[in-house]
Amino acid sequence: MQYDLQLIGYITTFESLTRAKMKDVFYDDNLILTFIVLEGEGGKAIGKGGSNVKRLGNLLKKRIRIIEFANDAVEFSKNCILPLVPRAIKQEENKILIEMENTQQKAMLLGRNKSNFSNMQKIVQRYYPVQLKVV
Fold first, then answer.
1. Whole-angstrom Cα distance, residue 106 to residue 97?
2. What are 102-133's pLDDT values in tens digits?
3. DSSP class per residue in 53-80
4. pLDDT at residue 94 tops 80
5. Which of 36, 65, 114, 131 gives 24 a disulfide partner, CB atoms 3.0 to 4.6 angstroms apart?
């Protein structure tokens, strides 16, 4: 993956502010600056009460999202939809099935015109060759 000078600046600012190790950074389809941090670094990166996310967002004047990487596609998918908590999430061959608690949570996961869901699917497919499906 190649980064331009601006993204490299975001990486150094992120790591110096949060003291968390990063795996990747990119803009998602909703133009949110998305940081993928290594396993176990999510809490440190977000900070107490989301303080690091707020400080970083104000400093960079960008919308920020932090996702903790996982070596398992199911666990990584679960991390991508946080703070929403699914009722069940399981993998069948190359599909990950996500079952939400109620229709309100399902609507939040999908977003208008499925924009949130397609964005999440692209993030997961960046690392794992799977399809996501909400049931």
1. 13
2. 888 888 888 888 888 888 888 888 888 888 88
3. HHHHHHHHTS-EEEEE--SSHHHHHHHH
4. yes
5. 36
Q: How many separate domains does the chain show? A: 2
DSSP code for 100? -
- CB-CB contact of 96 with 131 (8 Å): yes
**Where in the sequence is the domain holding 32, given as residue range(s)?**
5-68
109 residue type, one letter: L
Q: How buried is residue 32: exposed, middle or buried, by Cβ count under 10 Å (0-12/13-18/19+)?
A: middle
**Average pLDDT value for residue range 10-21:** 88
CATH of residue 129's domain is 3.30.300.20
Element containing residue 27 per DSSP (H, E): strand 22-27
Structure tokens belonging to residue 87: 């009722």
Count of other CB atoms within 10 angstroms of residue 45: 25
Is the previous residue joined to 83 through a cis bond, with omega within 30 degrees of 0?
Answer: yes
